[in-house]
Write a structure and sequence with these properties.
single chain; Arc Repressor Mutant, subunit A; five-stranded antiparallel sheet; 11 helices; 43% helix; elongated
């Protein structure tokens, strides 16, 4: 019985040393043997310097990277962690800037990320946090919605949900009079700070997509999902969907000023088909979803990117601009 208590005490001591080093130590905040002994004493664990040295060796032997700085008095710190400081900082910035993550959930995730480094490093990270998205999702259930959809995909089951919009008073209202959408979920895609569900929508009989933050908590149905159509290419679909807005797909030709090459590559990737027109312009051919979003994207560059073909797309773009000019002129007339 005495031997069993000694072994248990040894295990507790190892875990306590590991916890201390993980939480309190890093390269710039190393702990001495005395620091460790004093900490163990506050936990009611009396031991000696040789035992601490042996415990550190056992932890290192079992894959825990505890770095030893040899000197008159050895010091120790946690070396390799799951994530290093630059990685944690990048993840924190992503969480804080994401529109899909609510403000409350962002704070929860940030605290979890900080727990992966020492308390000293966590304090440094808090001091360096200077960017926060001004627009955050208001859907606190987003994580549970995503988890439910993942489970439905894994189980190969249909889901059912309602979509919602907001009225002029910023109140949530159901879309299509509270219509229940039944969908065979195929994939969840993260695109430009939002989750999108891609699946077979029974009301339209088509493979389509919808923003996850615009749906209520889905219900997993007992019915098996429709099989993914043999002709359907998920990778091609994701690449071709321009900002995930529905619209007819079409190949378009764009004339761009040379300074726009970075914009084109960021949007369509390095494999996009381009050719030089003259010293100032190049041409690019892309397949996009023709929608107001696409036209708005072109318009924002003030003529540095222009649609040159097909004529139907050029005409539709011109008509959209003319209609907006009419509204502006009419509003101006009423205000005079």
């Amino acid at each position: 019985m005495q031997q069993e208590n000694t072994i248990t005490s040894g295990k507790d001591r190892l875990l306590e040393i590991l916890s201390l080093l993980y939480e309190k130590s890093d390269e710039n905040h190393q702990l001495s043997t005395n620091d460790i002994l004093n900490h163990l004493q506050t936990r009611g664990m009396l031991t000696n310097r040789k035992t601490v040295k042996n415990d550190i060796e056992i932890l290192n032997k079992h894959g825990i990277d505890i770095v030893i700085t040899h000197g008159l008095s050895n010091t120790y710190f946690m070396g390799d962690r799951i994530f290093q400081m630059p990685e944690i900082k990048m993840l924190m910035d992503s969480v804080m800037s994401s529109r899909a993550i609510t403000e409350h959930k962002s704070e929860v995730l940030i605290d979890k990320l900080k727990s992966l480094v020492s308390v000293h490093q966590a304090a440094e990270l808090s001091e360096s946090m200077c960017f926060k998205s001004a627009i955050k999702s208001s859907n606190e259930n987003i994580y549970y919605i995503v988890d439910t959809i993942h489970n439905a995909i894994k189980l190969n089951k249909k889901i059912q949900f309602r979509k919602y919009d907001y009225n002029v008073l910023k109140e949530r209202t159901y879309r299509d009079n509270g219509k229940l959408y039944v969908v065979s979920p195929y994939e969840l895609v993260w695109f430009e700070d939002r989750y999108y569900l891609i699946g077979f929508f029974e009301d339209s009989g088509l493979v389509s997509s919808t923003r996850v933050d615009n749906i209520e908590m889905p219900t997993i149905l007992i019915e098996d999902s429709h099989a993914i159509p043999s002709w359907f290419d998920m990778g091609e679909y994701v690449l071709s969907m321009f900002k995930m807005y529905e619209g007819p797909m079409s190949e378009v030709e764009l004339i761009c000023e040379n300074s726009m090459m970075r914009i084109i590559l960021d949007r369509f990737g390095k494999n996009v088909e381009t050719s030089v027109i003259n010293e100032e312009h190049f041409k690019v051919k892309v397949t996009v979803s023709i929608s107001p979003t696409f036209y708005g994207w072109v318009f924002q560059f003030g003529g540095m990117i222009r649609i040159s073909s097909p004529k139907t797309v050029c005409d539709e773009y011109l008509n959209m601009i003319e209609q907006n000019l009419k509204f502006i002129t009419a509003d101006k007339g009423r205000n005079q």
